[in-house]
Structures are given as C-alpha cells and as structure tokens.
Write a structure and sequence with these properties.
The complex is a heterodimer of chains A (169) and B (300). With 169 residues, chain A is α+β, with helices and mostly antiparallel strands. Chain A has five helices and five strands. Chain A folds into two domains: 76 residues, Roll (Ubiquitin-like (UB roll)), CATH 3.10.20; 74 residues, [2Fe-2S]-binding domain (DNA polymerase, domain 1, Orthogonal Bundle), CATH 1.10.150.120. Chain B is built from twelve helices and 14 strands. Classes of the chains: A alpha+beta (169), B alpha+beta (300).
Chain lengths: 169, 300
C-alpha cells in the first residue's frame, strides 16, 4: 500500500521550506530527517520527556506529538533559531554560565520552553519556573542548576528590555 | 517513521468532516483532535487507523462563549485557551482548576477540550469534571445533532456514547451558581503527570448552614471517572464538619468496586487516596461556600 504524499510549506527559524511527505511523518522526524535540523532531539517519542519541544507560532509544543502535515503554513522556531548572527541567545548563555546543561540532550527542549515562559512572564517566581519546566525531563544535570540558569536568563532579558526602553525614551 | 500508514484529510468545515465520516463509514477511521493522546498511540502502533480525519483546521469549532447559564466551548478549543479565558475564570473556576491540572503547558498548548472528553481516559480530569458539573456534550452525526448529558456520555474505560460517524462539536458547562462551593484536586507524582487519583466536589448550604446539595466525583482510581451518588445522599441535610467529612471519605473508599492497580500505585494506595481526596474536596468546597468545618483556600 502506498500513501499519497502531501505537499506542505512552512517557515522554520524564518526560512521557508517546502516538503512532500507521508501524512504519518511526525513533525520531529520532518525537522530532523528532511530539513536536517538535528538540534531538535527525540527522546521518548510519546510526549513525556520534552526533548523535542519546539515553538509553533510562539507556543511550546511536542514535535513528536504533531504530524508534519499539521505544520503546513505554520511558523516554527527550533533551537537552531535562537542565536542571532552567531551570538547565543541570553537564555543559551545563561545555561552555559549556570551549568544548566551537562550532556545537553534535553537542553533544546528546555531552552524553547523557557523562551515561551519568559515571553509570557518576564519575572517568574521559582514555583512558576518549576511548574513550566515540569514537562521537561533531565537525567544528568540536575534541576537546581537549570532553575538558576532560568533566573539568570530572566534577569538579563529584563535588564536588556529596560536598557532598550530607556534608550528609546 | 513510527506510525503505521494511514490516509489523511484535514477538512476546513464541520460539514466537510461529517461528510468524510459518512463516506468512510466502513473504514477504520479515527478523528484527530489535539493529538496529545492519539499521536502517542499512533507512534506506538497501538492505534492503526486506515483513515485519519484531522479537525485542527476547523476554525468554527474553536470558541468560548457564555449562553444563558452555560459556557459553550467549541470541541477544538485548546486547553491553553481555556486557561487564559477571562470568561472561564469568572464563570466557572472549577473548570480553570481542572484545566491547570491537565498535563504540562506544552500539552495544554495542543490538547483540546473535546479531545479529552472523547478519549475518556480514566485518569483524565475533564470526564470527572463533566460528571461533577453536569456537562452536556453536543454531537453532530449523519442523522443530525444531539445533546448528551455527561452521565450518559461516558461508558467506561476509554468508551463513550460516540458512534463511529459522530463528531463531538461542543462542550456545554454550567456556570457556577453564586453560593456554590467547589473543589477539584488530584495527587500525581509530579504536577502534570497522570493522576494516581483525583476528586472534585460542589456543595450548597441552606440558611441554617446544613448541606442542601452535594456532588462528588472521583477519577484515576478505577476504569472510569465516577460520581459518588450514595455518599452524596448521606451528606444532604447534615451539618458539615470534620467527622462528617471523614465518614464520607471512608464510604467513598469502601465503595470503590475495583480500584486500579498499576506501576504508579497499588489498589490499596488508590483506595486510601479516594478517602483522603474525598475529605479534602469536601473541606475545601464547604470552605468556599462559607460553611462550618470548611478549610480556607490555600490553608493546607
């Protein structure tokens, strides 16, 4: 039995892509296998570990729990899209400085989840951060260092925001 | 590529979805809502449908409106939209509380209100909330539209009144009457994980402070969510208080016919959870209704 392929177009990290895919392909497999954006990691493939988390139109979602055809017309951000002109995103930099990663497998999912959190809540309480990260599993770094990384990232992003708005006034 | 092969369609309208369901009445068809339960089943090949009808492009199924004492919520409304809805916050706080217990934020960004009802997972919050609040499910099929009360909608483990050619279109949730106290709690290993057990309650008090209306629902402890009608009847007309709540908890626990036993918790543990959670939701609901023996929010 052959399944008819579907043509889709989507934007990933600001770049437009077109692909012809089987409907059963997951979004995670499209990103990794077809678009060769292998920064999106695949752990459990049933929505529990959070490693494959990407931003879909600004919202953090599990790339393993979406079919690629469902992303037709959508705008995605993966970990590859966080840096600007070779400079790491403040969240990435904070994870390095506060030892928020060891092996790094789970990190892309953490970074994008934190990205959504800090967009919506620039000064989250520790409880809020823990709650937001509840869906991300890390097996080696330890969560305290990750929590510290998020605090640092939040402070830096707020400072940058304050600096930008005082310059603008 | 993990899921087995299937044909796929993503209609733009409900009418188109219903017509596709009719055309494929003889095939093994699955409806795809938020995908947070179905896609894992596809990935593990526990579900191998021949044809998948994706409702995610149907904008007319995404809304939250107030209609004369009810919140009418389109079946494809995301849990995150419920969580962020000012209308939900004001009109039915128990729905907000239950929604915040569903999965993790990333799951609520995709998971839908209708999907949770149609999937009827025994550990899911929404079916229990539906039984507790007397929710109505609007269903469209080839023969037209019908409304099914929650009490008749849920048939057991992952089973509902939905026929293969039906689409759940709207979930109708009564708004909270002023004076009704409510509570909705669960116990999970981590916030966001599947509940090992959960409970909800609503209560009303008469002028003398006695319980005039009581509803209790449990989930995650058996094959499906359930209302505790017998326990509720025993409580009506009584003066609320710690001894009464403890007694109700004991009855709830003893009344469990076949508690679930799995890797997450033994049957004995779940029997105890049913007791503890029944006491807690009664305390909290009575506290919110302003009654005696109740516990203020956040005092635990």
């Amino acid at each position: 039995m052959t399944t008819q392929k579907k043509a889709i177009s989507l934007s990933v990290n600001g770049i437009s892509y077109e692909a012809s895919i089987e409907p059963r392909m997951t979004l995670a497999d499209l990103l990794r296998g077809e678009l060769v954006l292998t920064g999106t990691h695949v752990g459990c493939e049933h929505g529990v570990c959070g490693a494959c988390t990407v931003l879909l139109d600004g919202r953090a979602v599990r790339a393993c729990l979406m079919l690629a055809v469902q992303a037709d017309g959508a705008s995605l951000t993966t970990v590859e899209g966080l840096e600007t002109d070779g400079e790491l995103h403040p969240i990435q930099q904070a994870f390095i400085e506060e030892h928020g990663l060891q092996c790094g497998f789970c990190t892309p999912g953490f970074l994008l989840t934190v990205h959504e959190l800090l967009e919506n809540s620039p000064d989250p309480s520790d409880d809020e951060v823990r709650d937001a990260l509840g869906g991300q599993i890390c097996r080696c770094t330890g969560y305290q260092a990750i929590l510290r990384s998020v605090r640092l990232a939040a402070t830096r992003l707020r400072d940058a925001q304050a600096a930008a708005s005082s310059q603008g006034s | 590529m993990k899921p087995a092969r299937f044909e796929y369609a993503a209609p733009d309208s409900l009418a188109e979805a219903i017509s596709l369901l009719e055309q494929h009445a003889d095939d093994d068809v699955k409806i795809l809502a938020g995908g947070q339960s179905l896609v894992p089943l596809l990935n593990m090949r526990m579900a191998r449908p021949e044809f998948l009808i994706d409702l995610n492009r149907i904008a007319e199924l995404q809304y939250i409106r107030e209609e004369a004492g009810w919140l009418a919520i389109g079946a494809m409304t995301r849990k995150r939209a419920v969580e962020e809805s000012e209308l939900v916050r004001q009109r039915q706080p128990a729905l907000l509380a239950a929604t915040q217990l569903v999965g993790h934020p990333q799951i609520r960004n995709r998971g839908t209100v209708g999907g949770s009802m149609a999937h009827a997972d025994p550990a899911a919050e929404y079916p229990a909330l539906a039984l507790l609040l007397g929710v109505e499910l609007r269903v469209a099929g080839p023969g037209g539209e019908r409304r099914i009360p929650a009490a008749d909608f849920f048939h057991g483990y992952l089973a509902t009144a939905l026929e293969p050619t039906d689409v759940l279109t709207e979930v109708r949730i009564p708004v909270l009457d002023p004076g009704t106290g409510w509570s909705f709690l669960e116990v999970a290993r981590r916030h966001g994980d599947f509940a090992m057990g959960g409970a909800g309650a609503t209560v009303r008090l008469d002028a003398s402070g006695k319980l005039s209306e009581v509803r209790i629902a449990l989930f995650g402890v058996g094959a499906a969510a359930l209302r505790l009608h017998d326990v509720e009847r025993e409580l009506v007309g009584e003066q609320p208080g710690e001894a009464l709540f403890q007694d109700a908890g004991a009855r709830a626990s003893q009344g469990l016919e076949d508690p679930l036993s799995d890797v997450h918790a033994s049957a004995e543990y779940r029997r105890n959870l049913a007791r503890v959670l029944t006491v807690r939701v009664l305390e909290e609901a009575v506290g919110r209704a302003g009654g005696a023996g109740g516990r203020e929010e956040g005092s635990r």
